[in-house]
Amino acid sequence: MSTRERSLNFIEEIIEEDLANGMNRESLRFRFPPEPNGYLHVGHASSICLNFGLGLRYNAPVNLRFDDTNPAKEEQEYVDAIKKDVEWLGYQWAEERYASDYFQQLYDWAVELIKKGLAYVDSQSSEEMAKQKGTPSQPGSESPYRNRSVEENLELFEQMKNGEFPEGTHVLRAKINMASSNMLMRDPIMYRILHKHHHRTGSDWKIYPMYDWAHGQSDYVESISHSLCTLEFLMHRELYDWFLDQIYDNKSMRPKQREFARRNLSHTVVSKRKLLQLVQEGHVTGWDDPRMSTISGMRRRGYTPMAIRNFADTIGIAKRTNLVDVSVLEFCVREDLNKTAPRVMAVLDPVKLVITNYPEGQEEWLDAENNPEDESAGFRKVPFSRELYIEREDFMEEANRKYFRLTLGKEVRLKNAYIIKGESVVKDADGNITEIHCTYDTDSRSGSGTEASLRKIKGTIHWVSIQHALEAEIRIYDRLFTHENPDGDKEIDFKSYLNPNSLDVIKGYLEPSLSEAKDGDRFQFQRLGYFCVDRDSTAEKIVFNKTVGLRDTWAKLESKE
Predict the structure, then answer these.
(1) What percent of the chain has pLDDT over 70?
(2) Annotation-wise, does 35 bind a ligand?
(3) Which of 18, 108, 228, 273 is most buried (most C-beta within 10 Å)?
(4) Catalytic choice (12, 35, 330, 511)
């Protein structure tokens, strides 16, 4: 077995086997079929990467097809958001399609099934149908309307289509087998009456196809070769094939449904219904809240398309559902941003540092490297002056030998600037340090080449010139849920695990180069983490979101617990 063959996932192995058995490579065609009833989440991102990744691997077209068969829950807003997400991830679809494009064809095929005696109009209530469905171990019982004549069924179905009946009075069911061991084969519903406005077809239709009837047939119309879906649709495959059997003409590509396992992400939920609940109940600010597992939320938080694609590649495709720790996603984000994000200096918990032997009123503009991972990124100028902000945790009045940041009587280097020595502190009435006084070595400027500048100093800290500092709102995000699997116990409301400390808003001070930063721009705040500009920023106030820290702090916390 070659290295290439060993690297194939099981979906690719299926495709390779089909090609080996005579399928024309040019017949390969895939699709990503979202429902426009919410924003896409990280689980959808994996599916997008799978389908479009196969398209790239096999140079095959991939359709974006909206499964818009339920106007009660679908909106144009969701269609637009889904298209934006797919494009942002870096993929381009071959054709934009909609299940609603095929409403007439689906209706015509349903009429053909009625004429063949394979579909009938059922006039029972939903409760009555549920009772006669049976159980997995007991067969169902036939509907009293199952043996209506073809003529009566055709007439009733047309009246349903014309809007002559209220919702819930009739449905169209396939006539298959009420004793099947697969309960989905027990005369499944094909159409229901809905007097709802559709975002594309308006009020043209009063009946709408169910997913199982619309999906496989849409695949067939589009000549999809491999219809990939998640594992919960495994039991649907028999019905998928049964419906195709009724319309397949041996002249077109017959789609093949195959299933892969969901990859659930820890400390979040990946149900559109539950994500919508979080939005509607105000637990988050919207679908694109940076704490959400939606693609739009991850984009706003500062995640990169490549990081998400790398994450999808890392977790791969499997046949069993499992829970992926969110730290894997954060690692992929951190790894990508390390290569691309410019380095800047910011102080988020400031304490004032006064360099007592630096001339008052003097300022210097020092060279600072933009990204050591990218030589082409060049340098920028940062202002230096007598009074600076440093991080409060970067100073300790009394410290042991293992503490390499600023302390009294010892030296530390200011990043891109000078070597300083702690001399004294000023405290308020409560004993809190309000100022740190230090002296600097005038010949020790970084990059100057002097003997003093080349001295080996163990500690380096970042800083911001108070005179030049840009004040900003900083949003520090934590995981939305305290439990790794908030949706794991159906007896417990997932919202009971909401993290009350998932957002902390603080004031920070930034180097002035960030005054020109735009919405979505990403940076590494040196020694603090990765941050991006939020869309709430204005000319008067810039807002940054914390994307991810420089290291995984949750792993340490959880190991202690």
Answers:
(1) 97
(2) yes
(3) 228
(4) 35
| Residue found under tokens 């930034």 | 510
Is 262 in the active site? yes
Largest CA distance in the chain: 101
Cα 219 to Cα 33: distance, rounded to the nearest angstrom? 10
The number of beta carbons lying within 10 Å of the beta carbon of residue 81 is 21
> Do the annotations mark residue 102 as ligand-binding?
no
Quick one: 424 and 490 in the same domain? no
Residue at 417 is within a domain? yes
Q: Are strands 433-440 and 322-324 parallel, antiparallel or unpaired?
A: unpaired
Q: Which of 361, 362, 379 is nearest to 370 (CA)?
A: 379
* Coil vs helix vs strand at 497: helix
Q: Does 271 carry a binding-site annotation?
A: yes
Q: Establish if 289 belongs to a structural domain.
A: no
Q: Residues 148, 262, 479, 546: which is the catalytic one? A: 262
Q: Say whether 403 counts as a known binding-site residue.
A: no
- Is 0.85 topped by the overall pTM? yes
Can you give the residue range of the structural domain that contains 123? 103-211
What would the 3-class secondary structure string for 460-516 be? EECCEEHHHCEEEEEEEECCCECCCCCCCCCCCCHHHHECCCCEEEEEEEECHHHHH
Q: Which of 237, 272, 522, 546 is catalytic?
A: 272
For 282-334, how does the pLDDT look when each residue is reduced to its tens digit (9 = 90+)?
999 999 999 999 999 999 999 999 999 999 999 999 888 889 999 999 999 99
Domain boundary among 211, 241, 271: 211
